[in-house]
Design a protein that fits this description.
Layout (H helix, E strand, L loop, with lengths): L1 H13 L1 H22 L8 H4 L1 E9 L10 H16 L7 E5 L3 E7 L4 H9 L4 E11 L15 E4 L16 H4 L14 H7 L10 H10 L5 H16 L5 H6 L10 E6 L5 E12 L3 E8 L6 E7 L1 H15 L6 E5 L2 E4 L2 E2 L7 E5 L4 H13 L5 E10 L4 H27 L2 H27 L5 H30 L4 H33 L3 H31 L3 H4 L9 H4 L5 H7 L9
Parallel strand pairs: 5-12, 6-11
Antiparallel strand pairs: 1-3, 1-14, 2-3, 4-7, 4-10, 5-13, 6-7, 8-9, 9-13, 10-11
Helix pairs in contact: 2-14, 2-17, 4-12, 13-14, 13-15, 14-15, 14-17, 15-16, 15-17, 16-17
């Protein structure tokens, strides 16, 4: 039994270079990735680098004057925060101010334009049937760069490609069924078709259509007036004018037929006539942007609630048989997407496919997931803010961190002498890993370093140094028991390892709980503390232990030099255990 055990010990002592090589490769790779990405400094939070502040004011809907209350405002704050962070904007602050205002602070360096669009469009989300569509006047002709229109498909069915007549890019200006003309203006034939289902745009069947129309009851005067008003608004609205397109639906109800604007995949503005709301945002259970396993393109997957699934199946069946066969996803009166439908989609699951890139797919999924708010809001102001703390406060924080680090170094040098070199090298390795990972997480997941996060990194210095001290003290205990350095290093490791893992687990658990139950800046502290705790385990296992194993083979440390920190005499070591064992001899039973 002794030989295998001895072999294992020898093997563990003779291969510390593998662990060192692994962590050195990781440091080189992270450092290289940092320089290749073009980001060599961590992204700073709004309290250190400034950013954009957006003020939203809640509006009371007609007949819902009491809707602006604390419960609905808190719900809106929660949804807006998820929508903003859904864009990868970490460290965003969303909070109420007074009874009817919400303040959204977005750190500098994020996609502020996209975040502002997401935050500013905070009205209810609706699904409406497309009755007509046309290219807005003054918009660039999207037919110059055609792209397939989005389509919806359900469950396990293959994606149905958009038909030319439902294309979001070119159908508005070329499809006769949409009632479009070559000038980009359209007579809303689809709106008329809702009053006369037999209406057709085919010139060959005009006579038959007129005969059928004569048998259809004529609309009332009020219906004709409403239709004329919609047609007039559709013809006159200029979707390229921001103020005009935001006011075109002012005061409209979910049950109204409306005129709305929206951009297609080519970036051109289109105008639509949309029927009454068929589903609301509350009917959507979840949505996500994924890459299709069939086409390799980005798609948006939707899942509806039980009630929403029944509505969606019924509505898509009706829309599939209509012309145009499209439904519009409308947020704040603006069309976010207008996919076509080829058949009824049962089961409560659907896909929206088309000419999406990652950003547009994630943006639409974000709208579908978090679009439904209990209140409507209007944008009161958008201002750029300077750093709340400024460079002086950041400088003071860094000085405090440097003082703390210096005190730790002084303590290690005075008390552990030569062993302090191992601790300092380990701290340096931990610092390199922490810095490079934080820098890469900025463009990667939107991580922003705020002052509480800096505090978390300073606290981590003590946690990391504590792990080294635990190991060093275990080694010293073994030397006090009379063992030489090399076996002391190996025998001390299992005991130190358990203590370090338990201590780091408690720290990481505290950081994880703090991250889950808090928001904003405190999350930055928790995230940094959790990250550095994990890196502490990596450094101790892959750097500190192998370095200690290698130094135990040197004469300076193994010989117990007074400045090594492992001098047996200074530690009050007992006589070597092997000598005490020689005194004891086996007793012959016969002599006893």
């Amino acid at each position: 039994m002794a030989a295998p055990n001895k072999g294992r010990k020898a093997g563990s002592q003779s291969r510390p270079g593998r662990a060192l090589a692994l962590i050195l490769i990781a440091m080189v790779a992270l450092t290289g990735g940092m320089f290749l990405s073009g980001h060599t400094t961590p992204r700073l939070g709004i309290d250190l680098a400034g950013g954009t502040s957006i003020t939203l004011r809640a509006k009371s809907e007609p007949g819902k004057e009491n809707a602006v209350n604390e419960t609905n405002m808190n719900t809106a704050v929660s949804i807006i925060e998820r929508r903003v962070n859904g864009l990868g904007v970490s460290e965003a602050e969303v909070q109420t101010q007074g009874r009817e205002n919400i303040i959204v602070n977005i750190p500098k360096g994020t996609n502020e334009k996209q975040a502002r669009e997401q935050v500013g469009t905070t009205a209810q989300l609706y699904f409406r049937r497309v009755l007509n569509q046309a290219l807005a006047e003054g918009a660039a002709d999207p037919s110059a760069s055609p792209s397939p229109g989005a389509s919806a498909s359900g469950g396990d069915k293959a994606n149905s490609s958009a038909s030319p007549s439902a294309s979001a890019s070119a159908s508005a200006s070329t499809s006769p069924s949409a009632g479009a003309t070559t000038q980009g203006r359209a007579v809303p034939e689809a709106l008329k078709a809702t009053e006369s289902p037999s209406a057709s745009a085919s010139s060959g069947d005009k006579a038959g259509d007129e005969a059928k129309a004569s048998e259809t009851p004529a609309p009332s005067a009020s219906e004709s007036a409403a239709t004329s008003a919609i047609e007039k608004k559709f013809a006159e609205v200029d979707c390229t004018d921001r103020e005009e397109r935001t006011k075109v639906n002012e005061g409209a109800k979910p049950s109204d037929t409306i005129v709305a604007c929206g951009k297609d995949s080519a970036g051109a503005w289109n105008k639509y006539i949309l029927g009454p709301s068929e589903l609301a945002g509350t009917d959507v259970d979840s949505a996500s942007a994924v890459i299709s396993t069939q086409t390799g393109a980005w798609i948006v997957q939707m899942k509806f609630t039980d009630k929403g699934a029944d509505k969606f199946a019924k509505v898509t069946g009706e829309i599939a048989a209509a012309t145009p066969n499209q439904f519009a996803i409308v947020l704040d009166g603006e069309v976010q997407s207008a996919p076509s439908v080829s058949s009824s989609i049962p089961g409560g699951q659907a896909e929206i496919s088309g000419s999406f890139d990652q950003q547009s797919a994630e943006s639409l999924a974000n709208v579908l997931s978090y679009g439904a708010l209990p209140l409507s809001f209007e944008e009161q102001s958008v201002t750029s803010v300077t750093a709340a703390l400024g460079s002086e406060q950041l400088h003071a924080g860094l000085i405090a961190g440097a003082i703390g680090l210096a005190l730790v170094i002084v303590y290690l040098v005075v008390y552990y002498r030569g062993l302090s070199v191992v601790a300092l090298l380990s701290l340096l390795a931990s610092a390199i890993l922490t810095y490079t990972i934080m820098t890469l997480l900025g463009p990667g997941i939107g991580f922003a370093l705020n002052l509480p996060a800096v505090c978390g990194a300073i606290v981590a210095i003590g946690i990391t140094a504590d792990s080294f001290i635990v190991y060093f003290e275990r080694i010293r205990d073994e030397i006090r028991e009379g063992r030489t350095l090399r076996p002391a290093v190996e025998r001390a490791w299992p005991r130190a390892r358990r203590t370090i893992l338990v201590s780091d687990f408690v720290s990481f658990l505290a950081a994880a709980v703090l991250f889950v139950v808090t928001v904003g800046k405190v999350q930055g502290f928790a995230f940094t503390l959790g990250l550095t705790t994990l890196l502490d385990v990596v450094v101790v296992f892959l750097f500190t232990k192998p370095v200690m194993t290698m130094l135990a083979r040197t004469k300076f440390f193994s010989g117990g030099h007074p400045w090594s920190g492992l001098d047996p005499t200074r530690l009050g070591a007992k006589p070597p255990l092997r000598r005490s064992r020689r005194v004891t001899a086996p007793i012959d039973p016969k002599e006893a």
